[in-house]
Specification:
Blueprint (H helix, E strand, L loop, with lengths): L1 E5 L5 E6 L2 H4 L5 H15 L58 H18 L2 E4 L8 H11 L4 E4 L6 H7 L5 E4 L6 H5 L3 E5 H11 L1
Helix pairs in contact: 2-3, 4-5
Length: about 200
């Protein structure tokens, strides 16, 4: 499949061939869902914590004698039945991550790229370079009609471009190794540089 290549100033810069095995698949929601769920679970902190009866600050003394009161038998006030007592089987710090085979993760990335092609939301640019001036880049982005946009470059992002893009709302920049399903799907427009296309094709073959 062929797509036109443009420059940041809106001019044309030829075309590029995209491999159908990466950009021409029929997107499957179940595959994308599994990969996104794996990503979000891995990113979840899991720092939730409650105090058990051994960690609350009451005295451990038995609150009244065992027999003769007419009431229920109790030990100390740290028991879960009492107000401000320890919590029974509450959350403890843990990792929410689960395994997903590397082949399946690659497949998910292929389907995410193919989904953007099918939507008509994939743009190829010659290169992502800037002198580091936010105002100049913001004008170019506005003229191109990009709003919620992810730019994926080659192995390294141009320092000036990254600096200029840092203060533009809705514009994010990643190197090719940082490309992931969640970030691609949550943006309206995906922009790849020619170097980014080459790097992704090499990574996903």
């Amino acid at each position: 499949m062929k797509l036109d290549v443009i420059k940041l100033d809106g001019g044309t810069a030829g075309s590029v061939d995209l491999g159908d095995e990466i950009f021409g698949l029929e997107p499957r929601a179940d595959i994308l869902h599994r990969v996104v769920r794996w990503q979000r679970n891995k990113a979840q902190q899991g720092t939730h914590k409650v105090k058990t009866r051994s960690e609350t600050s009451y005295s451990t003394k038995k609150i009244y004698r065992q027999k003769g009161t007419g009431g229920a038998r109790h030990g100390d006030r740290n028991a879960p039945i009492f107000r401000k007592g320890g919590i029974y089987k509450g959350p403890t710090p843990r990792s929410h991550a689960h395994d997903l085979p590397k082949k399946f993760r690659k497949l998910g990335l292929r389907h995410a790229l193919s989904a953007k092609v099918k939507e008509g939301s994939l743009v190829i640019i010659e290169s992502a370079q800037s002198e580091g001036k936010t105002a100049a880049l913001a004008k170019q982005v506005k003229d191109l009609g990009w709003k919620r946009t992810l730019v994926i470059d080659g192995a390294e992002v141009n320092e000036g471009f990254a600096k200029a893009a840092a203060n533009i709302e809705g514009l994010d920049v990643l190197p090719s190794m940082g490309a992931n399903v969640y970030d691609i799907l949550r943006r309206d427009t995906l922009v790849l540089t020619k170097a980014g296309v080459e790097a992704l094709e090499a990574r996903l073959k």
